[in-house]
Amino acid sequence: MPLLRRLRPDNFTLALLATVLLASLLPCRGEAARIFGWATNAAIALLFFLHGAKLPRTAIVQGMAHWRLHLTVFASTFVLFPLFGLALQPLGHALLTPQLDLGVLFVCMLPSTVQSSIAFTSIAGGNVPAAVVSASMSNLFGIVLTPLLVGLLLASHGQGSASWHAVLGIVLQLLLPFALGHLARRWIGAFVDGHRPLLGFVDQGTILLVVYTAFGAAVVEGLWRHTPPLALLATLAIDGLLLAAVMLTLHWSSRRLGFAREDRITIFFCGSKKSLASGIPMAKILFAGQLGGLGALVLPLMIFHQLQLMVCAVVARHHAAHGRRIVAEDRREAD
Predict the structure, then answer these.
(1) How many domains does the chain have?
(2) d(CA 46, CA 48)
(3) Which domain CATH number covers 63?
(4) Measured between alpha carbons, how far is 204 from 276 in angstroms, rounded to an integer?
(5) Are 40 and 209 in contact (CB under 8 A)?
(6) Residue 110 to residues 127, 184, 276, Cα–Cα distance (Å)
(7) Residue 150 resides in a domain
(8) 34 is in which domain, residue-wise?
């Protein structure tokens, strides 16, 4: 029973499922779809503005000292994940629809999460300051690297490459608000730090808005008619294989590289996750020409998001219990 409680979907996941159901039953069309599109773009810009305002410059400077840790997380996020994604392509080609197959690869190109990486690192007793910097810098670099990786991905799928218009859209809608928010931190940083629930509300609200508009458009184009149930189950299995492969590799390699326990925990949690908050807005911009298929394309990301939360919750509690045992043993030896 305790394990089942830990694996139970959280409120945000339930809200995501409710949004998908709403978009499936009542998709927005015509003028309403355009209004929702404008509202979503504004919410995305606000989200990245607040993320920029949340990142302290002192944390960046202090965290840079752990360059080996950050380089390991960076390599996992933008090298290891894409390599595993390519290795799983034969399975994807055989079991998934083209959009779901593309969606699994898109997951591999995304930056790490911020909030959950830091939260799980803290619960497990890892290096929290390093996690703050590593996860934040992953998102910052991802604004540039993800479009480049997606360009290579699309070229490999015979769909051309990410256009300069899409890259410019990423810069204007994500990077520019992030930079402006960081510059404005000296004036609004205290307010943002004192109202963290506001950032969480904007974060989750933006995702729900994008999911509703994306799935609504996809449903209008026949998403559920063209997505067999077996393909959804195969997506779950492939996402699970991807997550397991990365986690096992990080667990083994961080030990071989000689990192301390606290740093290994940080590498594990920051290097094994992918950001839903960054991924869905990026998909909306990068795959704008395929809006009818955007709902299916982000399904693997939504599934991966829930998998990583459930698995990391169990692993973080295991590390926390192990840490308490180490402290207790040290105290007994001291006595």
Answers:
(1) 1
(2) 6
(3) 1.20.1530.20
(4) 10
(5) yes
(6) 23, 26, 9
(7) yes
(8) 2-322
Amino acid sitting at position 181: G
pLDDT tens column, 52-98: 787 777 766 666 678 899 999 999 999 999 999 999 999 999 999 88
Q: Could you report the per-residue pLDDT of 115-159, keeping only the tens digit for each?
A: 788 888 888 888 887 887 888 788 888 888 888 888 887 666 555
Q: Is residue 79 part of a domain?
A: yes
Q: Residue 106's pLDDT is what? A: 93
Q: Would you say 223 and 49 are in contact if contact means Cβ atoms under 8 Å apart?
A: no
Stated pTM of the model: 0.80
CA-angle at 129, arms to 301 and 255, nearest 5°: 75
The CA distance from 81 to 83, in Å, is 5
SS3 for 126-159 is CCHHHHHHHHHHHHHHHHHHHHHHHHHHHHHCCC
Q: Indicate whether 118 belongs to any domain.
A: yes
For 163, counting Cβ atoms within 10 Å of its Cβ (0-12 exposed, 13-18 middle, 19+ buried), the class is: middle
Give the burial class of 11: count Cβ atoms within 10 A of its Cβ; 0-12 exposed, 13-18 middle, 19 or more buried.
exposed
Contact (Cβ atoms closer than 8 angstroms) between residue 180 and residue 49: yes
Q: Which amino acid is at 319?
A: H
Q: How far apart are the C-alpha atoms of 73 and 105, rounded to whole Å? A: 19
pLDDT tens per residue, range 258-280 = 999 999 999 999 999 998 878 88
Residue 332 lies in a domain: no
Nearest to 277 by CA among 148, 143, 183, 160: 143
What the block records as the tokens of 70 is: 């950050």
